[in-house]
């Protein structure tokens, strides 16, 4: 297969790990030409995998067409298709993978399956210029402290139960808050937290570099149901405790690895309070603080396209036979030859 | 030099949780462990965490000695200011030596560490931060556990499993080349301290914790 490697080569990236279906076009030299996203909004409760997958299948054609249109390229100009292969919700992943396979075969271009977590780290590095950071990756499904060592992004710490984003979402739902388009639960909680004044003591659980949020969530929900505290104070306290925990483990990884940068990435990276905490810690360790821009914080096709390019340039591609999704694909199982060790 | 308080203070380790200073204290070489206020935390939360950990740590260090695990001698505790003065343990961090020593020594160290962890658990002590940087190899070949800042008391199986799971993870992230053999030896040492039956149970627990963890494929 003729592989073009010039800056005129483009990768189409498809992201469908959870509630977002995203498609993006990125050039091989790292320019973002388009970034289109459509988010599944459940009427109530959390993400139902099958319903989310149905949503993805419905919007896929439109999102993909828009991504190409916005990038002002023709399908024939695409020289690589990348898709998120895992980890995530099976039905959602499969929808994106099916679209990616079909496109790659039709266009007769190589296919690269990308690890979603690596995608969040790589896009953070591309957008901020970070080279070798300790990364805190926080989202609705993941909470990971990672740094690169000997060919792989090693996991230094992670949640032992639920992700921080999930903790905030479930609390918000239990407190009767409403999610709105363009304003996820995390942002609603953040807004209320800013009006909080009184700190309510909640369980703080750090185990080495690992964290646990389930006890914190239960206590926060119970405190809300007791009716003794204002919602503002609870949002404030929940954020303070949860983010202090995250900052403590990140600082621990930073002290341990002595890396020169701290990178904050993933959907929850949009939170200003978390940003300011990490910035403080980075400063104290003479590390540069980098945060992924808002437009690339949540799940998106750009991070998949860019990671696909990095992988492909270093000789990694995925055959159709090996392109089945891996819902439990761990970050540290990915060999990353494109990163300088 | 006149013996006394703070003749010389050197920062030896700026950790996330506390900073360690090498000091001279009544003619003794000591480590001053200071839990400095963290600017990122609000003061209410910060004071609680620092005081609780400062009060808890010397207690557990003492209990660990009773369990037969070498720990530093504690000379002074100041809960309000979150300071602890303790013995300076001569030696090297296991983190620095584990990858460079001979393979026999590596297995001996791992087994010894496992035995110490087993003793802690048998006495209901959960270390809470089992990494190779928290263990000092003395010139006599002993391993001293130095950081009990995140420790707790428990007889339950769950926290013991988490403790060992952390040890395993620390080995894999920092000593990936030898992690497997080292952890195997750790569990052998552990078994020597607590017996086969309890080791079997905790091993099953570790596996359960790993599977419960995020995105671990069935093995």
Write a concise keyword list for the protein shown above.
heterodimer, A: 341 residues, alpha/beta, Nucleotidyltransferase, domain 5, five-stranded mixed sheet, 41% helix, B: 219 residues, alpha+beta, Phosphorylase Kinase, domain 1, Transferase(Phosphotransferase), domain 1, 2 domains, five-stranded antiparallel sheet, three-stranded antiparallel sheet, 6 helices, 10 strands, 45% helix, globular, disordered N terminus
Give an overview in words.
- The complex is a heterodimer of chains A (341) and B (219).
- Chain A has nine helices and twelve strands.
- With 341 residues, chain A is an alpha/beta fold.
- Chain A folds into two domains: 10-120 and 297-333, 2-Layer Sandwich (Nucleotidyltransferase, domain 5); 131-294, Nucleotidyltransferase, domain 5.
- Chain A has a five-stranded mixed sheet, with helices on both faces.
- In chain A, α4 (164-174) packs parallel to α6 (214-225).
- With 219 residues, chain B is an alpha+beta fold.
- Chain B is built from six helices and ten strands, in the order βββαβββααββββααα.
- In chain B, the strands form three sheets. Chain B has a five-stranded antiparallel sheet, covered by helices on one side. Chain B has a three-stranded antiparallel sheet with strand order 6-8-9. A two-stranded antiparallel ribbon of chain B has the order 7-10.
- In chain B, β4 (74-78) and β5 (83-87) form a beta hairpin.
- The longest helix of chain B has 24 residues, at 43-66.
- In chain B, 44% of the residues are buried.
- The model of chain B is unreliable at 1-5 (pLDDT under 50).
- The A-B interface holds A 86-87, 142, 144, 149-150, 154-156, 158-161, 163, 199, 201, 204, 206-210, 240-241, 244, 247-249, 251-252, 254-256, 276-278, 280-281, 284-285, 326-330, 332 and B 14-17, 38-42, 44-45, 48-49, 128-131, 133, 150, 162, 166, 169-170, 172-174, 176, 209, 212-217.
């Amino acid at each position: 297969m003729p592989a073009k490697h010039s800056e005129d080569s483009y990768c189409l990236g498809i992201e469908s790990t959870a509630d977002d279906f995203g498609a993006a076009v990125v050039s091989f030299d790292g320019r973002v030409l388009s970034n289109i996203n459509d988010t599944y909004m459940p009427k109530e409760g959390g993400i139902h995998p099958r319903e989310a997958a149905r949503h993805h299948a419905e919007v896929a054609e439109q999102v993909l067409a828009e991504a190409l249109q916005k990038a002002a390229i023709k399908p024939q100009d695409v020289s690589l298709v990348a898709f998120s292969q895992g980890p995530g919700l099976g039905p959602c992943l499969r929808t994106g993978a099916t679209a990616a396979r079909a496109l790659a075969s039709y266009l007769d271009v190589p296919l690269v399956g990308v690890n979603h977590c690596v995608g969040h780290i790589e896009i953070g590095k591309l957008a901020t210029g970070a080279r070798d950071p300790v990364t805190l990756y926080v989202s609705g499904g993941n909470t990971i402290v990672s740094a690169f060592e000997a060919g792989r992004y090693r996991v230094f710490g992670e949640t032992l139960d639920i992700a921080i984003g999930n903790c905030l979402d479930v609390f918000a739902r239990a407190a009767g808050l409403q999610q709105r388009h363009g304003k996820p639960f995390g942002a609603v909680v953040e807004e209320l937290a800013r009006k909080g004044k009184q700190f309510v003591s909640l369980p703080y659980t750090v185990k080495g570099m690992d964290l646990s949020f389930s006890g914190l969530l239960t206590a926060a929900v119970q405190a809300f149901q007791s009716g003794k505290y204002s919602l503002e104070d609870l949002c404030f306290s929940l954020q303070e405790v949860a983010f202090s925990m995250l900052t403590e483990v990140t600082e621990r990884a930073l002290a341990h690895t002595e890396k020169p940068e701290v990178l904050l990435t993933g959907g929850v990276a949009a939170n200003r309070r978390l940003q300011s905490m990490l910035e403080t810690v980075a400063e104290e360790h003479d590390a540069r603080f980098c945060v992924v821009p808002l437009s690339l914080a949540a799940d998106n096709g750009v991070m998949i396209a860019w990671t696909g390019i990095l992988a492909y340039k270093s000789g990694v591609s995925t055959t159709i036979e090996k392109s089945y999704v891996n819902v439990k694909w761990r970050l540290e199982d990915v060999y990353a030859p494109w990163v300088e060790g | 030099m006149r013996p006394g308080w703070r003749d010389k203070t050197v920062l030896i380790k700026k950790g996330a949780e506390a900073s360690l200073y090498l000091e001279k204290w009544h003619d003794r070489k000591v480590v001053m462990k200071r839990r400095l206020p963290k600017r990122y935390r609000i003061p209410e939360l910060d004071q609680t965490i620092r005081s609780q950990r400062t009060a808890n740590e010397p207690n557990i260090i003492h209990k660990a000695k009773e369990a037969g695990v070498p720990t530093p001698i504690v000379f002074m505790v100041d809960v309000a200011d979150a300071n602890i003065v303790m013995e300076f343990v001569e030696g090297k961090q296991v983190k620095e030596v584990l990858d460079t020593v001979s393979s026999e020594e590596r297995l001996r160290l791992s087994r010894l560490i496992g035995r110490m962890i087993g003793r802690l658990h048998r006495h209901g002590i959960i270390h809470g931060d089992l990494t190779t940087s928290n263990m000092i190899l003395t010139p006599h070949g002993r391993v001293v556990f130095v950081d009990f800042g995140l420790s707790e008391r428990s007889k339950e199986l769950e926290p013991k499993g988490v403790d060992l799971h952390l040890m395993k993870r620390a080995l894999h992230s920092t000593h990936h080349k030898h992690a497997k053999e080292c952890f195997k030896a750790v569990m052998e040492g552990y078994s020597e301290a607590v017996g086969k039956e309890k080791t079997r149970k905790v091993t099953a627990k570790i596996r359960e914790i790993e599977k419960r963890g995020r995105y671990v494929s069935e093995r």
